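Structure tokens please, single chain.
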Amino acid sequence: MSRSGSHNFRKIRSVILTAMLSFVSLACMKTNLTAQTAVEADTPGLSDIEFTVTEASEWTALFKRNTGWIGADGIFSIPLNGKRHHSGDPASETAFIFSDTLIGEISDGNLQPGWSMVNNTIAYLKGTRPVADSIRFEWSTDNNNRPISLFTPGLPSADEGDYYWLGDGFVNTELDSSIYIFAYRMRNLDPDQEWSFAEMSTDLIVLPKNSTVPFSEQRQIETPLRFKEGGFGAGILVNTDAGGAPRPDGFIYVYGVRNQEKNLMIARVLPEDFENFDAWRFWDGDGWSTDIERVKNVVSRVSHELSVTPLPDGRYALVFTRDTLSPVVGMRLAPTPYGPFGPIIEVYETDVMEQNNIIAYNAKAHPSLSAPGELLISYNVNAFDFMNEISKDPNLYRPRFIRLKFR
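Here you go.
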């Protein structure tokens, strides 16, 4: 394994440790789920919904690859036409952004020597169907043509060796259609300690319209949107007419997560004010406060990455992995983008965690790729003993997909 691969392996294990510490109480044994199961007290109108769930095997297969990009976590989707909700446009293009990414070759089911890992990569899909010939994966390379991360912290506050894990992103049609991506600047504090890492800041990466790899024109902005115990960027709802929202109120909603209980926080801002942090407002339970310190913990037991999506019936669906790391994809319903959110509805339980060391985490919906009346949902798969498990199954480390269809 290359030196960069070893460095990134420590970070993968750090992510897993963070998730482990967030457990409230997790039973990994498979339970019998019905299509409509709430694990908390019933809330009228927020716990009743009819749906069916199937595996979206064609989407899962799209990310099973044997050369170049062969695995990653993260997978936020950004429709480049700005329509975060299904537009039905077959000519549309979607950017997928990933965090820690495995790059190499798989031959005869074996990971070949010379593989490496980088902190972030991107893929582009033409259209809204999972067609292998329609997707391409890209990353940067150094002077020796070795893979390197697309986005590396370059702000004055960054130290050499800092790196970015990516949050959600969107096309801001009110600011020259630039792409805004949340980026968590991470630092390994002690090179001899695998668990020694810290989030130093929550930054924004801004890509001008029509930017291409290696994104030499990118801008980086350090934001005031980070707490000691968490920050914003876990999910974005573009609730605007330009974004294709069915009931637009003109705001960009940005969701954050903090504390070991994985409490959800909510902020909002007009798209034209996205870089003006004095214009941001934070949900305090009664209204929208100018003071970030008054932001309320709305619900708990969500995941570091999640989504909030308007449904055809007027409600909003918060999709996440229960407790960040578990076999259960959960959903909470709300009448508005900021709640109140109902009890957890268990919509799916993956069996991957029945295997020793294998974990599932960070479920989220991809509404721009979902057919009307459905939600396409991804979740990530990794392993506690990464090196051992990836040698046994090199295709392990990649997203899986399910399809939630509302009746």
